[in-house]
Each structure stands twice: as C-alpha cells, then as structure tokens.
Amino acid sequence: MPLELYLDLHSQPCRSVFIFAKKTNIPFDFKFVDLATGQQYGEDFGKISVVRKVPVMRDGDFILTESVAILKYLAEKFGTSDSDHWYPADLQKRARVNEYLSWQHAAMRAHGSKVFWFRAIVPIITGSDVPKEKMDSAMEDLTLSLKVFEEKFLDDRPFIIGEKISLADLVAIVEIMQPVGTGLDLFENRPILGAWRDRVKMELGEALFDEAHKTIMDVASLPQTFENNGMLEFLKPKIQKMFN
Questions:
Q1: Residue 223 in this model has a pLDDT that exceeds 70
Q2: In angstroms, rounded to a whole number, what is the distance separating the alpha carbons of residues 180 and 240?
Q3: Among 222, 181, 227, 177, which residue's Cα sits nearest to residue 197?
Q4: pLDDT at position 172, please?
Q5: Which tens digit of pLDDT belongs to each residue from 46-78?
Q6: Where's the GST N-terminal domain (predicted)?
Q7: Residue 240, C-beta contacts closer than 8 angstroms, at least 6 positions apart
Q8: What is the CA radius of gyration of the chain?
Q9: Which contacts of 83-86 are long-range, i.e. CB under 8 A and separated by 24 or more positions?
Q10: What is the side-by-side order of every strand in the sheet holding 56-59?
Q11: By the 8 A CB rule, do 63 and 125 touch?
Q12: Model pTM score
C-alpha cells in the first residue's frame, strides 16, 4: 500500500508535510480532507483518525497524526546522506531543529493563526471586524514572535541551523505565510525576514512553494464556501469562545 497523506492545504501543518514529501520525492497518495466543509467530522475520516485533524499519514497499517511527528518520521524513513540537512544526524544541529519545533507551537503558530482567524474568519462568522484592541493585541504577540525568530533562531545565519535548510525553516515559513494570506505583508520593513523567505523559497523551488500556498492566498473565497455548506452556524460557538 502506498503512503497516504490526508491533507487540506488551507492548513499550515498540512502544507509543511506536503512540501517536504514533494521536495524529497517521497511517493504518496494525496487524500484531500475538505476542512471548509467539515469533512474531518465525517464518519469516513473518523475511521482514519479519532483526533479529527489534519494532517494524517498512513503507512501501511501505521497511522500517525501531528505534523511534526509526521515530518520527523518521513525524514528518518526516507532520508539519505544528501537530505540529512532536513533533520540532521549531528546532535547539536538536530537539537536546534527540535528547539524551534518545540518553541513555535505556543509562539509563531499560535500568534500567526490568531491573526489569520481575526482577519479572515471571524468577520465572516460575526459579520463585523474584530474589536481594535483585540486585533492590536494579537498583532503585538505576532510581532514579538517574529522578533524572537529573527534575533534568536536566525541570528545572522542563512537558515535556522546554519547554511542548510531544515524542517525548522519549513515549519516556520508555512506559519508565517498564514496571516500573509489575508493580505498582511509581514515582510515589509523586515529585511532579515524577507531575505530568509527568499532563500527558503529558492531552496524549495518557486513552483512548489506557490503550489502549496495557492489555496491560502485565495482565502477571499471562504465566505461563499461557508455560506453554501452551513459551516457558519457550526463555527459560531468556537468564535464566541475567543471573546469570552
């Protein structure tokens, strides 16, 4: 049975898994799970994963959830000497990758996702913009995460572990691109971040980078999708929790 990846490229973690598998020529079947229609809550997907989130990887009888776990699994199973830089065997370089992957969950991912929801999703559900003080607070958190990313994790290096791209850079770029998809230019007046983005894009290949991010760069289509499939009512309680 070929490797199966259950993905929706609206999702940052799905994009990281998709890009890595494509870039390293790992053969896989793309199993689309339409998050905008709530397909993850359906009976069929529930048989794949009770977590009901994407990405999910199935390798024969082995099913794995969580993007970081999937990325490490793929890197270790399919890695070669030429691709070692993604998840290095070198103890300290691997520790740097793990350090970023551990930090980003409560920082870059949390803050970038919140800004994305506030700019792209909440107005669709509520019919009005997020209160200015909440939007400002979310942007302050994201700005701080970007500052830490530049000053600590890049620190004048081309990539997080040094001269070569790694899983850490891949996970970072897909998270940063999430709020960018709402029309927010996070690279403006951030030359260090912009230069790093350009290097990452070059290493991945422009065509693959654009293919992976095409969906998130078209979030303007989400309102009509939610209207057509009834997800507006489903999402309202989740949105209300953000403001309680």
A1: no
A2: 24
A3: 177
A4: 98
A5: 999 999 999 999 999 999 999 999 999 999 999
A6: 1-82
A7: none
A8: 18
A9: 83/24, 85/161, 85/164, 85/165, 85/166, 86/20, 86/24, 86/165, 86/166, 86/167, 86/170
A10: 29-32, 4-7, 56-59, 62-65
A11: no
A12: 0.93
Assign 3-class secondary structure to the chain: CCCEEEECCCCHHHHHHHHHHHHCCCCCEEEECCHHHCHHHCHHHHHHCCCCCCCEEEECCEEEECHHHHHHHHHHHHCCHHHHHHCCCCHHHHHHHHHHHHHHHHHHHHHHHHHHHHHHHHHHHHCCCCCHHHHHHHHHHHHHHHHHHHHHHHCCCCECCECCCCHHHHHHHHHHHHHHCCCCCCCCCCHHHHHHHHHHHHHHCHHHHHHHHCCHHHHHHHHHHHHHHCHHHHHHHHHHHHCC
| Type of residue numbered 168 | A
From the list 198, 206, 202, 192, the residue with the least C-alpha distance to 157 is: 192
Side chain identity at residue 25, one-letter code:
N
pLDDT more than 90, % of the chain: 81
Q: Which residues contact 144 (CB under 8 A, 6 or more apart)?
A: 111
Sort strands 62-65 and 56-59 into parallel, antiparallel or unpaired. Answer: antiparallel
- Bridge partners for 62 per DSSP: 59
56-59 vs 4-7, strand pairing mode: antiparallel
Q: Output the six-digit token pair for 167.
A: 């899983």
